[in-house]
Amino acid sequence: MTKILSIMFVMIFTENYVLVQFLGICPFLGVSKKFDSALGMSGAVIVVMSLASAATWLIYTYVMVPNGLEYLSTIIFILVIAALVQFVEIFLKRYMPPLYRALGVYLPLITTNCIVLAATLLNVEESYTFLESCVNGFAAGVGFGLALILFCGVRKAVENAKPPKCFEGLPITLVAAALTSLTFMSFTGMAEKLFGG
Q1: N or C, fewer C-beta in 10 Å, the chain?
Q2: Alpha carbon distances (Å) from 42 to 45, 46, 59, 171, 191
């Protein structure tokens, strides 16, 4: 149980893929303008990452390892992720059209979102069990969602600010993202203190 809690804390706070490892910046910057879109994208990423972690662990453990195909991990994992994103896209288009339209081009970008691939590869690298892999994928998705929703609030504040002319637009957004990332970096070392490892 301690390891599960440690994985969750690390993936949400101390190793947050967006604000600490700087992965998945494209959807992070693109969808964080509106709260509804940020919330919808967060949910979609959590679902895809959880399912991708479960599916890739099963494929890796029961198909790839017995047949000596570990060297194909990246390619096979990308194919699994792409298939899962297609299912999520079809589901949203059918049952949640407003969210589907709000996410627009960013929904297919989950396929190329390096956060999803990073989580699945970390499961293999760390030799996580099935449960640990699922928790890792879910927690990494929650970390992405937390960063996205927090940054949505930061962007609202930045919109009301009057930065110097040279910082207007994307530059002030990137500065705000860097300052937001500092808050997550302050959690470094806490996992070892809390969970003893």
Answers
A1: N
A2: 5, 6, 25, 24, 24
Distance CA 16, CA 61 (A): 26
Determine the Cα–Cα distance for residues 67 and 61; give it in Å rounded to an integer.
10
pLDDT digits (tens, 9 = 90+) for 18-74: 888 888 888 888 888 888 888 888 888 888 899 999 999 999 999 999 999 999 999
Rounded to whole angstroms, the Cα distance separating 70 from 57 reads 12
Q: What type of residue sits at position 148?
A: L
The span from the CA of 96 to the CA of 157, in Å, is: 29
Residue 38, CA distances (Å) to 33, 71, 103, 116, 147 in order: 8, 35, 9, 17, 10
3-state helix, strand, coil in the chain (%, to 5): 80, 0, 20
Q: What is the C-alpha separation between 19 and 82, in angstroms, rounded?
A: 24
The 10s digit of each residue's pLDDT in 121-142 is 999 999 999 999 999 999 999 9
The count of other CB atoms within 10 Å of the CB of residue 169 is 9
